[in-house]
Every structure is written in structure tokens, then in C-alpha cells.
Amino acid sequence: MKEDGGWSLSRFRGRLETAIHVGNEMSTNVEFALDNLKYRKDGKFDFEEFKGMHHLYPSVLFPAFRLQNAMMQAMGGEQFWESKKLELSMQKEDERKREANREAREKAEAYKYREDQVRRHMGSIKYYLMPKNRAKYYEVYPLPKKYRLMEEQERANAKREKQLAEMRKKKAAQ
Description:
It is a single chain. The chain is mainly α. The chain has two domains: 7-74, no CATH class; 96-173. 76% of the residues lie in helices and 2% in strands. It is built from eight helices and two strands; from the N terminus they run βααβαααααα. The chain has a two-stranded antiparallel sheet with strand order 1-2. The termini are far apart.
């Protein structure tokens, strides 16, 4: 794809033909697919349209996948590539877990910092003996915006779950 947001249709057709189809003629299925796709007004073909083409007309890219499979068999074999896919998948999962742990740590630190501020402002005795009064101090010492939004989302989800549970209960009673 080009930096300006896509290929011209004629350039894309040429690249597609040379990359995955032999000879100067593309199959009628490919021609049909390219003729029936909706393009941007500027006549460019961007990645979203490319994905749409693959979704609507998977046979267009089938030769590319066949070539990929043949190359994989010739270079390392199926077992090598399956282990490589598993390795990459595990790396992604590990990274996702590290990110989730980092987010959880940051969230815990933000809550702890807020609680410390409220406890200092209220004083330890009031903080522990009058927990209902903490709410007004939470307004004075709010959480960072992303955690406030998360709390709102959690409250909305809990409310929705409660409503669903009530509906299920009513339905079961009938």
C-alpha cells in the first residue's frame, strides 16, 4: 500500500496479477471481484477494501495462500511452522498478561494513593469509624479519569447484570 492511503485500481490489478496469477490474464472470478467492489471516491484501493475483497471473494487470494503453504512445506516443514506459530502465540499471550498486570498495578496504586489522601484528610479515627463519610472526600480526591471511566463502566455492567437476573427470575416464575 502507498503512504497516501492506497493503490490506484490499475496498479493494484497489475500487482495482483503479477503476484499470484500466471500469465497476462486473470481468471474471470478475479475480474468479477475487482469489478464489483466498491472503491473510495478517489479511485484508490485501501487495506479495508482489500480485507473486504478477501471476505467477499476468498478465491481471489487462494493462489497466494497455496503458494504460502508450498513455501512453508519446502522451508522447514509443517511441524516447524506449527511450532513457530505456537511460539509467537505464546509470546503475544505473555505480552498481553504483562500489560494486564501493569494495568492492575497502576490501578491499585491509584486507589491506594487516593485512600491515603482521604485518610490523611479525614484523620485515621474518622476514616475507620465513619466509612460512610469517605464518599464526599472521594469527590475531593478523585481517581485519574481512566479509572473513573472504568468504575462507571463496572457500575453500568453490574446494573445490567442485575436487570438481566431479575428478568430471568420473572421468566422462570411464569
